[in-house]
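ok, trying the design again with the full structure, not the truncated one.
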């Protein structure tokens, strides 16, 4: 028997999905080990081996593939614990990291101060040189100033160096000379060259991205080296792939060079998993939410493809590489409830994490969390958490809520817990509005795919906030991202600045540049053993804007149409995208369009695990009923005994009515009174508003 494993290292739990060669899957969870995440990974492998009755070495010898999402780089940025980094940049631009874009991210927040730069001023060193936007040398590279700067970084014993010169995207010669000198003087330092990592215009974006890459690069490289060594030590000789923030996977070698691509890599596989389960019912769109122990991640999939963005922020540091458009807030099962200076209840973003965890874990935590509130409200069974392997302390949860929330606000413990639960739901609904309503997308037209260990407890209440008719809870929801990782493809994204008015752009030159980027991507896939041309897909896009606009829109286009119709076709694409995004376009007006960047994404299609569909069983879910439990119903503001069903025993066709609880080993789904539920052929628990029952059931059973 051969196996494939998806691993998602979260802030509280490390999730595993094990799939055998027959397509059978098993879910595993272990506590994360923040001091060394690889320990949590090895613990999970041991647990899998034990469940199969195999020795660890015997088991891993049968594992062909491990796809791994990591939070190592994300945590380093969020906690400010990256390595000691130096920056070489053009003389006169030493302070670009602190100058940033020249304005605040929140324009009307006068109290917002810039975050500390990743590289302090004494390690940001100027080099005399200058290249203009046309790639012409204005000031030759002064090798004396370059050597002096590199020697100073050596004296300061930096671990990593970022090189970013003005307009190096147009002519990388000076950066290449600096690269050679750094390699000579600091041979052990991790090195990032901006023209290799991000050859596009906009100085701040390039220098920030290069600095981020160097800031986390050595940390990721050490982690991957340790993980590979540990896996080799237990006999693993299969393939290890790393999840990237653009929704694709890559080998450890290529990932280590572009470490910044693993920022937010964990949740990046969620949308892939979401559309897989939504497609079972014929949907080509969905919203996905993943609520774990620390964070809540929301994303949108349209036309079968997760939405991408070409730049974003990580802990207020600019990152200008393609990534899935995922909105993350500090709202998870471990989110701590607290009272602010104005006497208002708040939830998160601080989290109790895995150690000590929520008060009910009994590991020394004393602060009230979302999980403690769910336990007090009856959504969790204290005797069945993780299938009974972990007992929850109800009295500890009540004491924490009483001390820190109920007494300060003059509430009962139950009312305080209800307030915590409601506030978390409102926060998460606001996160979904951020990626839908604020962008012209009507969320009511999308099924909501709910995942994460804590997500299914809150999914119905989030849906009520947004008036959503359909909620899908995959049977593997608690290890959602681990599932998506095994369904992700190799993906490498490239960009090249080509700045011209569309009326004056050279379509042949643009085609040449696109071809060069495609060739670079295909070469990387070849190194990753993706050699069959039928397994390669190439996507093309251009960043464009109306003349006078500050921001561009990334517009995907068909290369065959472009080669045939040239810039007229690109104008048509841009007008259509602008109208879809902003509600208007200037088609037919004399306003010029600017082309700014060209983008190519090369995808190596991987073999996907087969979906195991169930045969249809009895309609009634009553045969799976375990009993009843006293649960808080928000709409009634009261507790009521409601049925509890065994989710592990339910099969395709089982139908039931809310309110109800569906319990699994690793999560619990709360079906609010406004919804009924049915199990589809993939084993997904489908919650549907009572008003659309007959219409929706036809979709499930057709």
């Amino acid at each position: 028997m051969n196996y494939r494993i998806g691993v998602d290292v979260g802030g509280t739990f490390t999730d595993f999905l094990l799939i055998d060669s027959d397509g059978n899957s098993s879910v595993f969870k272990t506590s994360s080990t923040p001091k060394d995440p690889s320990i949590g990974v090895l613990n999970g492998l041991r647990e899998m081996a034990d469940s199969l009755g195999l020795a660890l070495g015997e088991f891993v010898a049968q594992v062909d593939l491990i796809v791994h999402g990591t939070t190592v780089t994300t945590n380093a940025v969020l906690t400010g614990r990256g390595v000691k980094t130096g920056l070489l940049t053009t003389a006169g631009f030493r302070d670009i990291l602190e100058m940033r874009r020249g304005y605040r991210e929140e324009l009307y927040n006068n109290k917002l101060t810039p975050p500390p730069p990743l590289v302090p001023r004494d390690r940001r060193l100027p080099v005399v040189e200058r290249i203009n936007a046309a790639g012409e040398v204005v000031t030759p590279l002064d090798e004396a100033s370059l050597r002096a700067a590199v020697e100073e970084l050596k004296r300061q014993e930096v671990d990593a160096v970022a090189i970013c010169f003005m307009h190096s995207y147009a002519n990388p010669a000076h950066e290449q000379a600096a690269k050679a000198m750094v390699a000579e003087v600091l041979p052990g330092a991790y090195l990032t060259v901006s023209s290799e990592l991000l050859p596009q215009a906009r100085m701040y974006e390039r220098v920030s991205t290069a600095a981020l890459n160097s800031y986390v690069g050595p940390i990721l490289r050490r982690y991957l080296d340790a993980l590979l060594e540990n896996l080799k030590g237990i006999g693993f000789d299969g393939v290890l792939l790393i999840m990237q923030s653009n929704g694709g996977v890559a080998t450890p070698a290529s990932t280590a060079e572009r470490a910044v691509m693993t920022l937010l890599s964990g949740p990046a596989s969620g949308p892939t998993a979401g559309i897989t389960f939504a497609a079972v019912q014929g949907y080509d769109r969905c919203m996905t939410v993943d609520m774990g122990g620390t964070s809540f991640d929301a994303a949108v999939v349209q036309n079968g493809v997760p939405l991408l963005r070409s730049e974003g922020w990580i802990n207020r540091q600019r990152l200008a590489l393609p990534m899935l458009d995922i909105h993350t807030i500090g709202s998870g099962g471990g989110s701590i409830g607290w009272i602010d200076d104005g006497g208002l209840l708040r939830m998160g973003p601080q989290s109790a994490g895995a150690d000590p965890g929520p008060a009910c874990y009994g590991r020394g935590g004393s602060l009230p969390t979302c999980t403690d509130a769910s336990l007090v409200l009856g959504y969790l069974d204290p005797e069945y958490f993780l299938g009974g392997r972990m007992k929850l302390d109800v009295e500890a949860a009540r004491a924490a809520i009483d001390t820190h929330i109920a007494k300060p606000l003059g509430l009962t413990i139950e009312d305080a817990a209800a307030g915590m639960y409601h506030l978390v739901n409102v926060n998460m609904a606001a996160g979904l509005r951020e990626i839908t309503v604020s962008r012209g997308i009507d969320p009511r037209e999308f099924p909501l795919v709910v995942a994460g260990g804590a997500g299914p407890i809150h999914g119905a209440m989030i849906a009520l906030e947004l008036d959503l008719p359909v909620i899908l809870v995959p049977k593997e929801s608690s290890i959602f991202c681990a599932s998506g990782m095994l369904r992700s493809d190799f993906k490498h994204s490239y960009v090249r600045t080509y700045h011209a008015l569309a009326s004056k752009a050279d379509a042949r030159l643009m085609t040449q540049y696109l071809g060069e980027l495609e060739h670079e991507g295909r070469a990387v896939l070849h190194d990753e053993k993706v050699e069959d041309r039928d397994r390669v897909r190439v996507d093309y896009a251009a960043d464009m804007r109306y003349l006078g606009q500050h921001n561009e829109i990334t517009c995907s286009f068909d290369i065959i149409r472009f080669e045939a119709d040239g810039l007229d076709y690109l104008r048509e694409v841009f007008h259509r995208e602008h109208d879809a995004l902003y509600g208007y376009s200037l088609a037919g007006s004399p306003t010029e369009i600017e082309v700014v960047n060209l983008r190519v994404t090369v995808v190596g299609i991987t073999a996907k695990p087969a979906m195991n569909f169930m045969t249809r069983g009895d309609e009634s879910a009553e045969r799976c009923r375990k009993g009843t439990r006293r649960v808080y119903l928000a709409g009634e503001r009261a507790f009521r005994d409601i049925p509890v069903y065994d989710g592990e025993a339910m099969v395709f066709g089982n139908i039931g009515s809310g309110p109800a609880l569906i319990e699994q080993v690793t999560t619990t789904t709360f079906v609010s009174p406004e919804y009924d539920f049915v199990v589809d052929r993939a084993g997904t628990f489908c919650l549907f508003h009572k008003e659309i029952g007959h219409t929706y059931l036809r979709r499930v059973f057709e």
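Keeping the full-length input from now on. The chain is about 30% helix and 25% strand.
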